[in-house]
Write a structure and sequence with these properties.
The chain is mainly alpha-helical. The protein is built from 18 helices and 10 strands.
């Protein structure tokens, strides 16, 4: 009984150890005028940042118990939704059986020196305060594209489906400017979180050493300012508790449809122009160009429509050009708009000797586009669209979305679907107009289609070699996802790719046209439809199988 009372008394005594502001008020009430230095500084600095400085979170790992009071305080004082959290608590463990380690870690926005969320935002919905260094999200400016959740290596911005925008920690800047500590700082019963002034150059120097937290993304990407300190040295095998867990990412289906269809349209226009400038294909291209161009244009417009479903606030999509100077998403949107516009003009030009007067009456004769120049311009903008689309994901620095992998997949999709669509258009037009030349063209395109589709499938399958990696890296996690949780989707993708992209074109190439043009047409259309379905599955895996380092989570997360 005495032991129990002693424990209770110790706990009650510990609770009397009030936070800095309350301790100051207590001392003031007691009439003690000689206040020791540091009472205010226990939670927030006494002065604003000077030149070369900024505010930063400081976390005492020895004092963090994982009680999540900081999470609750942040949620309540910022009026967040029940399922919304700007601060989280994770777990690191390691050591040996004799000397085990279990360390809880509280984490939020790191208010980086080079914030990737701000750099990638297409509408300028982020700003970094030049004095305090705090990275703020401008809710009214946000269109809910969620690109910042991909560019931020720490996955800080959180999408709020009710509001249709993302939101994030701003270090309770309104409280901080009034001399009050942020909600998480004030809520922590052990004083594990505080606000400190950090030297920008010191943060950059620390980022070069690649030392932040075990298993966390490299600080060299954005130079995070949060400082984690402990009197204990973490063992070499310290890892996040969820380091070996893998889980599928979001499928981003509107983006899947938009990317595949824009790449199909781009590939079709490129193949169309290649045929137009070859002696053997010029006549055939002229015969079917009208119908093929309209099909590609329609798919491009459908892709633009699909992209709007990815936005939380599509009515404000017109703001997307604001980030043109530094955001690849802004560049993609502008280039796609130009590509679809050029495709429209080119398609209209094919239906007459010149563009309709309503489109040209305000243009001087010297500014009128010739059909050939317009076609080349459309194809060039299509290629530029694929490049911009690829760079959106390459710039996130996710290993699964590396420059080589993303470029090969995106241009491979354009080549496969471009060839398949032209082959199907040639077969359809040849069947309708009883043209042997068009049927022959469809047959000639089948062989390069099978070759490119086979090479693309082989490259995609190469990720499975990482299943044998000894180290649990990003690509091994992606391979595990495709082999286990996403197994059905993976098998469907390869089955459709093999049948539609390889076998059907090879049968088309070996087909005797004299037998029946209808059977030939069915085979060509099957190659297109199955290849398109396969590429949609591949692009879904592109998003769902992506796995990258993140801040430590808890067991089972």
């Amino acid at each position: 009984m005495g032991v129990r009372l002693k424990v209770i008394n110790d706990i009650l005594a510990e609770q009397q150890d009030l936070r800095s502001v309350l301790r100051f008020a207590k001392k003031h009430a007691e009439g003690n005028g000689s206040f020791e230095k540091g009472i205010y500084e226990e939670q927030i600095p006494l002065s604003k940042p000077g030149p070369g400085q900024q505010y930063a979170f400081s976390v005492d790992l020895d004092a963090c118990t994982g009680c999540k009071a900081c999470v609750v305080g942040c949620n309540k004082m910022n009026g967040l939704d029940a399922d919304e959290a700007w601060r989280s608590v994770g777990l690191i463990h390691g050591g040996t059986a004799e000397h085990p380690l279990q360390q809880t870690v509280t984490t939020a926005c790191h208010h980086c020196l080079d914030p990737a969320c701000m750099n990638g935002c297409p509408v300028g919905a982020y700003e970094k305060d030049p004095v305090t260094g705090i990275v703020k999200h401008l809710d009214d400016q946000c269109i809910g594209c969620k690109y910042c959740t991909l560019t931020c290596p720490y996955e800080v911005p959180q999408y709020n489906s009710r509001l249709g925008i993302v939101r994030k920690c701003d270090m309770c800047s309104d409280r901080l400017s009034s001399g009050e500590p942020p909600a998480c700082v004030q809520s922590c019963p052990n004083g594990a979180i505080s606000i400190r002034l950090v030297d920008v150059q010191s943060v950059l120097d620390d980022a070069q050493g690649n030392a932040f937290l075990p298993g966390a993304p490299s600080p060299g990407i954005t130079a995070p300012t949060t400082v984690y300190h402990s009197k204990r040295a973490l063992p070499r095998n310290a890892l996040p508790a969820d380091f070996y867990s893998v889980r599928p990412a979001q499928d981003h289906m509107p983006l899947v449809i938009m990317l595949v269809l824009t790449q199909l349209a781009a590939g079709a226009f490129v193949v169309d122009q290649i045929l137009a400038h070859t002696p053997s294909g010029a006549d055939a291209q002229a015969a079917m160009g009208r119908y093929q161009s309209l099909l590609a244009l329609g798919l491009g417009l459908l892709a633009l429509a699909a992209a709007t479903f990815h936005l939380g606030r599509p009515l404000y999509a017109f703001r997307a050009f604001i980030g043109l100077r530094r955001s690849w998403m802004s560049r993609e949107i502008v280039v796609v708009g130009g590509f679809v516009g050029a495709a429209l003009l080119y398609s209209l030009s094919l239906w007459g000797s010149e563009l309709p007067s309503i489109l040209t009456e305000h243009l001087s004769p010297g500014l009128k586009f010739e059909r050939r120049v317009l076609g080349l311009t459309t194809a060039a903008l299509g290629v530029l669209t694929v490049i911009c689309s690829a760079m959106i994901y390459v710039s996130t620095r996710r290993l699964f979305w590396s420059g080589t992998a993303t470029t090969l997949k995106f241009f491979g999709t354009g080549a496969v679907l471009g060839l398949a669509s032209i082959a199907a258009a040639a077969a359809l037009t040849g069947h309708l107009f009883d043209s042997l030349a068009l049927l022959e063209l469809s047959k000639e395109l089948a062989l390069p289609l099978a070759l490119i589709a086979g090479c693309k499938l082989a490259y995609e399958a190469s990720v499975f070699f990482h299943l044998f990696d000894k180290q649990q890296g990003d690509l091994k996690r992606s391979a595990l996802l495709m082999f286990r949780e996403l197994k059905n989707l993976t098998m469907t993708r390869f089955a459709l790719g093999i049948v539609g992209g390889v076998l059907a074109p090879l049968l088309l190439f070996a087909f005797e046209i004299e037998l029946t043009s209808l059977s030939f047409l069915v085979l060509a259309l099957s190659a297109l439809v199955l290849s398109l379905a396969g590429e949609l599955c591949e692009r879904t895996l592109f998003f769902m199988a992506m796995s990258a380092p993140r801040m430590p989570g808890g067991i089972g997360k």
